[in-house]
Write a structure and sequence with these properties.
about 350 residues, alpha/beta, seven-stranded mixed sheet, about 20% helix
Length: about 350
């Protein structure tokens, strides 16, 4: 799809990922060694996208310093900021002011918190072949009760958008990647708060426009929670999802420049070790994300967790399914489990938090 333009929705505050997102927008969090969006930009480029408009709001000023004009990705990047959040539809309409596309051209819409292995080019081709108003990527999930589901008829036409329900009529859900015909974007009210899921798509269906479903079962992950964020990074490092942006070979561990991992440490399970991070002898790190300048001391065990920039996990501490904020210090002998989150700069004394009953 040479010359295809895209809008990338990156305005959310990432509240489910706090404290990681207190200082950094979710799309810029290091994921398998690079900012999360680097994986999306590289994949979009691979499918023929040449120009992307960022729809920014939360910490908007941080995006352009991270990606510049896009030349490093073979892309042209523009940045459009919402002064106050406009919802998904309002954000798309606002960003569209920077598009060059004509009324009949396809425009790709990407969400800044989704990892997907689906064929974007095939989705665009289906959209053009059917002359759809909008073509939605739908993914099939084992438990659709946690999502709004999107039923289609035998031709692929979307027939409804259904809110979360205990008895879903289908296991197909909205996967967050859309192809709009440009004129449909222009029909969204300018400067108003609009939800494409609750207003635009149902409105198009009601008016008889063709809203098409493009369904598949390739890799798909919403990285909006700490557990999912860790899983996404882990899957990229292990090669479960290909990414042209991965800064090294796939395998049990990805270590960035200056990382120091003792030969007597065990680092495995798709762990990403940030620049200048240290893993001491006797430490075990499994399936985790260690950000730049963090330290895991001797005898500590870190599993399915995030250790923030400059944070320290002291000797003998167990961290499992937890988030350690930037610059925090977890003293010796602590046990952090079950989704515990330590805020940036906090210092936990020795054995301050325990789950075990030992003395």
């Amino acid at each position: 799809m040479p010359g295809l333009e895209a809008i990338l929705l990156v305005g959310g505050q990432g509240t489910r990922l706090r404290p990681l997102t207190l200082g950094t927008p979710k799309p810029l969090l290091p994921t398998a060694g690079v900012p999360f969006l680097a994986h999306q930009l590289a994949r979009a480029r691979a499918f023929g996208v040449r120009r992307i408009v960022f729809a920014t709001s939360y910490k908007a000023a941080m995006f352009e310093p991270a990606f510049g004009d896009g030349a490093a990705f073979g892309l042209s990047l523009e940045y459009m900021t919402e002064e106050s959040p406009l919802g998904t539809g309002g954000a798309i309409r606002n960003a569209a002011e920077a598009l060059d596309s004509g009324p009949g051209d396809p425009v790709l819409i990407l969400n800044g918190d989704i990892l997907s292995g689906h064929d974007i080019g095939d989705q665009v081709r289906a959209h053009l072949a059917r002359r759809a108003a909008v073509t939605l990527h739908l993914t099939e999930v084992d438990d659709p009760t946690r999502f709004g589901c999107v039923p289609t008829d035998e031709t692929g036409r979307v027939t409804a958008f259904l809110e979360k329900t205990p008895n879903p009529v289908t296991n197909r859900i909205n996967a967050g990647c859309y192809v709009f015909t440009r004129s449909m974007i222009d029909s969204i009210p300018c400067g108003e708060v609009v939800s494409v899921e609750r207003e635009t798509f149902p409105g198009l269906i009601k008016s008889g426009e063709l809203v098409l479903g493009y369904a598949d079962r390739t890799y798909w992950l919403d990285v909006g929670t700490p557990a999912a964020f860790v899983q996404g990074s882990r899957d990229l490092v292990l090669g479960r999802l290909d990414s042209p942006a991965l800064p090294g070979p796939t395998g049990e561990c990805l270590a960035l420049d200056g990382a120091r991992i003792s030969p007597e440490a065990k680092v495995r399970g798709g762990t990403a070790v940030g620049a200048r991070a240290v893993v001491e002898a006797g430490a075990t790190v499994t399936g985790s994300v260690l950000l730049d300048d963090s330290v895991v001391e001797s005898g500590a065990a870190v599993t399915d967790a995030v250790v923030g920039k400059g944070a320290r996990v002291c000797a003998g501490t167990v961290v499992r399914d937890a988030v350690i904020g930037d610059g925090a210090v977890v003293g010796p002998g602590n046990e952090l489990r079950h989704g515990v989150r330590i805020w940036p700069g906090v210092e936990l004394p020795e054995r301050a938090v325990r789950y075990s009953s030992d003395v």
